[in-house]
Amino acid sequence: EMGIIMKQKKTHQKRSTFSGKIGFVLSAAGASVGLGNIWKFPYLAYQGGGGVFLVVYILIVAVMAHPMVEMETAIGRHSASDTVTCFERINKKWGFVGWLANICTLLINMYYVVVGGWILKYAVQFMISGDFGDNVTVYYNNFISKPVEPLIWAGILLAFVSIMLLFGITNFVEKITKVIMPALFVLLIVCGVYACVSMDGAVEGLKYYLLPNPKDFSIKVFADAATQVLFSVGIGWGIYATLGANIPEKNNLKKDAILVSVCDTAAAIVAGFVVIPVAYGAGVDLQAGPRLLFEVMAGIFRSFPGGRVLGSFFFLAVIFAVVSSLITFLEIIF
Predict the structure, then answer these.
(1) How far is residue 26's CA from residue 266's CA, in Å, rounded to a whole number?
(2) How far is CA 282 from the centre of its chain?
(3) How many Cα neighbours within 13 Å face the side chain of 156?
């Protein structure tokens, strides 16, 4: 029995590839920060009453996301194996939970790749000309309504990620992402300040975003915030069980989970800081939905000094965040 225990410990140590707390937190943040924060959170917050949605979202992150990230990471570290096996090692009857996580991730990947293709299209359009016509909403609607072109962009993105995984060069993307994401946050803050200073109504939008009005609260707001936390933080997909399989024993899982949750939430809050004031100031319909990020960012970079360059950087940075997330998502399944 002692020999078996020692063998298991050696196996676990061999799988512990993260250098420490920072290595795990950066990898987990790279997997969780993506379309959920930068694309989906702003339009849900815009539709959901601004400040009320923000407060509810933060409370759910504190009460639900942080404990669940810690729990999933602990399960992964305990088993040091794939998503299915890690639940089977707790109880053989629980293997189906791992399969559910894999199926969930596969389905989300289909959705994620398509929207990622939209981001790639806008990045290329900014680099080519930065011209989105007289009406950015019309441009967006015309693009997504085409039966083939959006699928081509999604295919390009999926092929790129697959090649990275096939040839084992994912570290290249991860290293770039760790540099480019802080720069993206700085750009977003600059854009938000620029909008509040230069756009009529943007300050009112900032108040709408940061100051909660209890009258705006509803069951729908709560449900949207809760599901967005699950999507954005990445709970229940097998992300943290997979990453946890490689986490050192010395790591404090509670502190790591807090840092990951804070990083993910901060990314969403910063994205909302730009998109919502600009949308509010421009009089964008509250029901704008998925097009909001594309409409707002394509619009603001038109008036921004060096807008074409900054717009190219913004959408390219988001693409790197998307690719970094997709690399982890695909590793979970395969």
Answers:
(1) 14
(2) 26
(3) 15
